Amino acid sequence: MSGAARKTTRLWEPAAGGWTSLPGMLFALARKHPERPMLRYWRDGGWQRLAWGDFALQVARAAAWLRAKGIVPGDRVMLVSESRPEWNVADAAVMAIGAVTVPTYTTNTVADHTHILRDSGARAAIVSSAALAARVAEAAAGAGGLDLLVCLDGADGTQTRHWAEVMAGPGDLPMLMAEVEEIPAGRLACLIYTSGTGGTPRGVMLPHRAMLANREGVRGLIERLGVEGEPYLSFLPLSHSYEHTVGCFLLPSMGMEVVYSRGAERLAAEFQEIRPAIVTAVPRLFEVLRARMLAQVEKEDGLKRRLFERALSQGLRRMDGPRLGLGERLLDPILDRLVRDKVRARFGGRLKALVSGGARLDPDLSGFFIALGLPLIQGYGQSEAGPVISVNLPWDNHRHTVGPPLKGVEARIAADGELLIRGDLVMDGYWNNPEATDQALRPGPDGATWLHTGDVARLEQGRITVTDRKRDFIKTLGGDMVSPAKLEGLLMAEPEIAQAVVAGEGQPGIVALLVPADGCAEALGKAVARVNARLSTIERIRRWVPLPAAFSVENGMLTPTMKVKRRAVLERFDGEIAGLYR
After folding, report:
1. Do 327 and 360 belong together in one domain?
2. pLDDT tens, 467-514?
3. Tens-digit pLDDT profile for residues 418-477
4. Which part of the chain is the AMP-dependent synthetase/ligase domain (predicted)?
5. What whole-number distance in Å separates Cα of residue 132 and Cα of residue 118?
6. For 150, which of 83, 126, 443, 544 could close a Cys bridge (C-beta 3.0–4.6 Å)?
7. What does DSSP say about strands 429-430 and 203-207: parallel, antiparallel, or unpaired?
8. Are 431 and 304 in the same domain?
9. Residue 341 is part of which domain span?
10. What percent of the chain has pLDDT over 90?
11. CATH number at residue 88
């Protein structure tokens, strides 16, 4: 195996059920519930379902075909596809024969694919469309070539093989089931290339034990929610480390049916169609949902608008104080029926948890949803940790924190404020990058090896509060240290500001690049003034400039999970920033 590896911090103990591998867990569940729906997806004008038993049979066929084409244990296989059942089948099949999956975003450029192919040494790729096949083939030409390229929705019959050919072959499911029971928990399962907010993506080496540890860590929470047999609406791409663990393995193994969303523009309708029990999304989506709800309220008559505002204000006071008076407590059940029940109904009516991850969730944004009766909880994680490290609980939701560490996760704060993590969920290292591995996995204050997260945090009353990225602090000309995450979060909480990046390293003060919300360009000054009123002198925005276009994945300013690439933005708009200091 290439890359730098680390021993686990304790001897691995099999997860509940005795599973030591992800395919082993999936096959055991397929044997137990062959008729139960596993996946739901939109195709041919309607919702289709894949049952557990059929899933297992398809995995066996794919595993046999890949073996016949020369894929052997340790080989890396790239997966480039939108969320669909073939993705899950291919993922499980690759792991079941001892090979390693390399999930990759469909939005990657040819250069991105070239880097990942060259770095991972992938011999094969499975893609969803002819267009993606062409892009990956072009990338492969610059990275040493591919032995096998499979397309789910079409092929040219020469260089590219069709998925239908994979499914047409025989598969020996009993033999494969017996084989996966012998897979050790420490075997490498996948390489997750971190999108990051800057720098070259690195391949995170996740063994089976890391993702199984994540499952064990949240098992008590999921069981208490009582969601077995209910749908999980999957919105994030399966190539994202969170969705790969949670959507492919964790929630299905807890008895939930995974439903693949058709995209943000269909989400409102899907809440009504699917009536999900759990939904996961990035903070940006919740910002959009809040804006839509507020825009709708503005169209209502005076009484409905006042009731909404009262429900919101009283909900916030229930969380933060001061305590509601007697009259307000008597009014609150009425507000529940007239306002909050209707809001919950818009989200399907049976939500047990709205989970936010991938970036910092502003407490004001989470407070908006919680006050209106929606259980929005924030979690925290990194690809390097399986990826879930901590999560708030719907019944114990401290929205200014990212919740307590999962069961089996050790957390401590280093002398410089960095959050350190240890446990079976931690990666083996970065593929082919021992220097980066040694930086991330190194001794902590006690001499033991810890994952150094790079995040500055506090650990209070058993809960983690992340305050910033360690490397992202801005040091001004006067030597003051300023948190860009704090300032950008406050700016984007203003309705007039859609996106924001602040700068000021080595400069006399802080400046900002602002993307105005639709129709709000003229009001940016007032929004900045409101934010400045809440900041210390050294943190205040001295000058700012509006940008003509939003940051997006297409222009290289956002990661596929909608995080702003600060380094890329600062480099792209270096001239505009320099002009603010003239």
Report:
1. yes
2. 877 777 787 877 777 888 889 988 988 989 999 999 998 888 999 999
3. 999 999 999 999 999 999 999 999 998 888 999 999 998 999 999 999 887 777 778 787
4. 30-431
5. 17
6. 126
7. antiparallel
8. yes
9. 280-349+352-468
10. 72
11. 3.40.50.12780
* Inter-residue contact 191 to 76 (CB < 8 Å): yes
Q: Are 442 and 220 in contact (CB under 8 A)?
A: no
Do 268 and 304 have their domain in common? no
pLDDT of residue 155: 65
In total, how many domains does the chain have?
3
CB-based contacts of 134, cutoff 8 Å, min separation 6:
none
With a cut of 70, say whether residue 199 has pLDDT above it: no
Identify which of 552, 577, 570 has the alpha carbon closest to the alpha carbon of residue 562. Answer: 552
Based on the domain organization, do 285 and 425 belong to the same domain? yes
Helices (H) and strands (E) in the chain, counts: 21, 26
Distances from the Cα of 310 to the Cα of 292, 337, 346, 363, 423, angstroms: 18, 13, 19, 19, 45
> What phi-psi label fits residue 378: left (phi over 0), alpha (psi between -120 and 50 degrees) or beta?
beta
Q: In whole angstroms, what is the distance from residue 506 CA to residue 537 CA?
A: 17
> Quick one: 439 and 477 in the same domain?
no
Instruction: Report whether 42 contacts 260 (CB < 8 A).
Output: yes
Q: Which residues pair with 500 in a beta bridge?
A: 514
Q: What is the percent of the chain where pLDDT is above 70?
A: 95
At 279-295, the pLDDT tens digits run 998 887 888 889 889 98
Q: What is the pLDDT of residue 148?
A: 96
Residues with Cβ < 8 Å from 215, sequence gap 6 or more? 15, 25, 249, 250, 253, 254
CB-based contact 207:189 (threshold 8 Å): yes
Query: DSSP characters for 205-265?
Result: EEEHHHHHHHHHHHHHHHHHHT-TTSEEEE-S-TTSHHHHHIIIIIHHHTTPEEEE---GG
Q: Report DSSP state, residue 40.
A: E
Q: Is residue 7 part of a domain?
A: no
Please write down the HEC assignment for all residues of 49-94. Answer: EEEHHHHHHHHHHHHHHHHHCCCCCCCEEEEECCCCHHHHHHHHHH
310 domain-assigned: yes
For the chain, give the mean pLDDT: 91
CB atoms within 10 A of CB 394: 18
Residue 118 belongs to some domain of the structure: yes
> Residue 167: what pLDDT?
96
